[in-house]
Amino acid sequence: MAKVLVATVKPFAKAAVDSIRQVCKDAGYEFILLEKYADQSEFVKAVEDVDALIIRSDKATKEVIDAAKNLKIIVRAGAGYDNIDLEAATAKNIVVMNTPGQNSNAVAELALGMMVYMARNKFNGTAGSELKGKKLGIHAFGHVGSLVGEIAKGFGMEVYAFDPFIAKEKIESMGAKAVDTEEELYSTCQYISLHIPANEHTKKSINFNLLSRMPEGATLLNTARKEVINEDDLLRVFKERDDFKYVSDIAPDIKEELESNFGERCFFTPKKMGAQTAEANINAGIAAAKQIVGFLEKGDTTFKVN
Ligand code: 3PG
User: Residue 12 gets which letter from DSSP?
Assistant: First the structure.
């Protein structure tokens, strides 16, 4: 009987766990749950004899992967898989997948909510501004980015996008104005919403050159990864521009410094919560479980990322 471990420091909604359990039961698999573990060593111990693993932002390090003697597949129930040591997994012939698109709507809704929150001065009672008529630049037009664009149009925003991996015609057919360079996006848009993954090309790529170009009343919105920001440059922009705001679902390393000096102009969620809705948990959790069944039963490798 194959063993499936769901290891989540930040647990799924109960309904999602129940659904994953059911998919495993129907397939004749044993279901094991490790939630809210306090120490990585608990995760390392739990993987020892499992065949399949479902995680969220949990760190599937080389230590975890090496400890997992029978592991054949890891599914990241979500989009970003920068928390998984792909090299270590590939070296052990372990298939790694994500579940693209399954939690995107939750993240997109949060992005718009955070935009309104900052435009209205964090609901502090002073006169803020409206999103209507403002230019929003979407940096990477994948599942989340394109949904943010769609919702923003409902607010009457003008939506621009930059994505070197998607044809301009496709971007335009989805209702955004495609621009040719990152520089053009940042120079044009008062609001920028980040949807790039964290990898060796993007880490620290959101820098002074880009941020300093943003028009008056700039707001940078990050529901992607903190690693893509050059934090020294971010701090410099905060110091040089009193109109600049930063709102992020992932607190930066310089959180305290930003909050104590520029508290009115920044906001960070206490815990990454973009994908933290029952719907997103259920969608991503069920997709992950079904992908495991598809792989173990039929060798289906759709959504393999390594
Ligand atoms: C993702 O990459 O899917 C999001 O960042 C959500 O991550 P989470 O499942 O850890 O909330």
Answer: P
